[in-house]
Amino acid sequence: MSWSISHGGTPRGTFSGTQIGELGDELKAVASWQQWRRVKVVFNRRSGDPFDLSPEQAGLAGSALLEAASRLSADCASHACQIGESALRAARSGEPWVWS
Q1: Largest Cα–Cα distance of the chain, in whole Å?
Q2: pLDDT for the residue 13
Q3: Residues 6+ apart with CB under 8 A from 2
Q4: Contact 7, 95 (CB under 8 A)
Q5: Predicted pLDDT at 48
Q6: CA 28 to CA 86: how far, in whole Å?
Q7: pLDDT of residue 10
Q8: C-alpha to C-alpha distance for 63 and 48, rounded to whole angstroms
Q9: N vs C: which end of the chain shows fewer Cβ within 10 Å?
Q10: pLDDT in the model for residue 66
């Protein structure tokens, strides 16, 4: 399974399910409760089915990803920033943030 994320979340192709799973695991371990609450809607999914978040949800998730990035390993921090910035672009555009 691989993920393509709208609004520039995957400019160089896709993220593998493993990469997203590792990012979610690290986030859960280091994020504050408030940060995790804002991003778990993305990382608690058990299926590989496409989904989208409202612009409001995307904004919350994006800000949490960027806030937590400094406490992640280098690879996960890079992914968190790239994904978080795409979420904020979707929110600013007033468009759904789509994972497919």
Answers
A1: 31
A2: 78
A3: 14, 15, 16, 17
A4: yes
A5: 80
A6: 20
A7: 82
A8: 24
A9: N
A10: 97
**What string of DSSP letters covers 21-36?**
HHHHHHHHHHS-HHHH
pLDDT at site 91: 98
Task: Determine the residue type at 4.
Answer: S
pLDDT along the chain (100 residues), means of 10: 89 86 95 95 86 97 97 96 97 97
The shares of helix, strand and coil residues in the chain, as percent rounded to the nearest 5, are 60, 10, 25
> Which of 97, 77, 100 minimizes the C-alpha distance to 87?
97
| Residues β-bridged to residue 5 | 99
Length of the chain: 100
Hey, is 70 helix, strand or coil? helix
The predicted model scores a pTM of 0.93
Q: Please give the Cα distance from 53 to 77 (Å, whole number).
A: 22
Distance CA 76, CA 31 (A): 13
